[in-house]
Amino acid sequence: MTALPAPRLLDQFGRVGRDLRVSVTDRCNLRCTYCMPAEGLDWMPKPEMLSDDELVRVVSVMVGLGVTQVRLTGGEPILRRSLVDVVARIAALDPRPRIAMTTNGIGLDRLAAPLAAAGLDRVNVSLDTIDPEHFAGLTRRDRFNDVVAGLKAASDAGLNPVKVNAVAMRGVNDTDVPDLLRWCLDRGYELRFIEQMPLDAQHAWDRAQMVSQGEILERLGERFTLTPVHERGSAPAELFLVDGGPATVGVIASVSAPFCGSCDRVRLTADGQLRNCLFARREVDLRGPLREGATDAELADLIVAEMWAKKAGHGIDRPDFEQPERPMSAIGG
Predict the structure, then answer these.
(1) What's residue 322's pLDDT?
(2) pTM of the full structure
(3) Listed residue (156, 234, 220, 215) closest to 191, CA to CA
């Protein structure tokens, strides 16, 4: 295998971009209340989206710049029909990056084994509650059993550790927090709670309604003994041993305890726009140069320059903070 290249995705604050989040589609088959309106959104026309060849080429350039992990996101990535082939082509790159995927789990029961065979290493499945009625209310779809089946299929296919992502919402599912952890522990899944962020299409996010890391830990502490795990590195989740371990639970406190100082992430949208931060207000177009015949070196120069321009932090607590125009479903998680 080719040796890992020296990192080139540096910013002015000494951070190195190694984790590439690639949105393979903006489409989704759920309508989660904290993400999009009940009627859905206007999806990107297919010609605006990167083709498989274009997507894999950008990933290849970024691997050459030092990216070591590629996470496929959406929307819902399983809705991209060529997903298995995309995974196989990324897995064939040299050096080979680790490949992960964030999904809502619907359809994973039939695709987990083919994705694992193609080279997918790991999966995160979004599941905010184990109460089927709460699930239907949150997602506006009665698909709880499909998600459960997808989780089991991922575990059976060896996509371990299988991680569960959950957003706790005040007055909606915040009382479900301990039950969800118990459910995950019993099945060997690793649970990560994520603070609700200002990335909804409705721009209705209200910090006062957000369930913070402190509140999540207080809820969990009513039933479990939590011990902090101090080694974190660039991981977004702060981990806690549950009842002495070895199982852990994590909290991604992007709002109340930002981890911008160690961020190693960069994002590529389904229509080929590079974002150096989830909350960035600007993007760099790679699709245009790709289709106009840019060389790999020219693409690399665009990427390196944008990473160098990355800000010190997302600035949610600043009075001049503005929510990105794109919602999470169009950026990629």
Answers:
(1) 67
(2) 0.91
(3) 220
Residue-wise pLDDT for 202-217, tens only, equals 555 566 677 889 999 9
8 A C-beta contact, residue 260 and residue 252: no
Which residues are CB-contacts of 212 (< 8 A; sequence separation ≥ 6)?
195, 253, 255, 256
Q: Are residues 96 and 34 in contact, defined by beta-carbon separation less than 8 angstroms? A: no
Q: For residue 123, give Cα distances in angstroms to 33, 52, 142, 332.
A: 23, 21, 22, 15
Report pLDDT for 278.
Answer: 83
Backbone angles phi, psi at 119, to 5 degrees: 130, 0
Helix (H) or strand (E) holding 255: none
Which of 20, 70, 58, 19 is closest to 286 using CA atoms?
Answer: 58
* Three-class SS state of 21: strand
Contact criterion met (CB below 8 Å) for 196 and 158: no
pLDDT at 38: 72
Return the CA Rg of the chain.
19
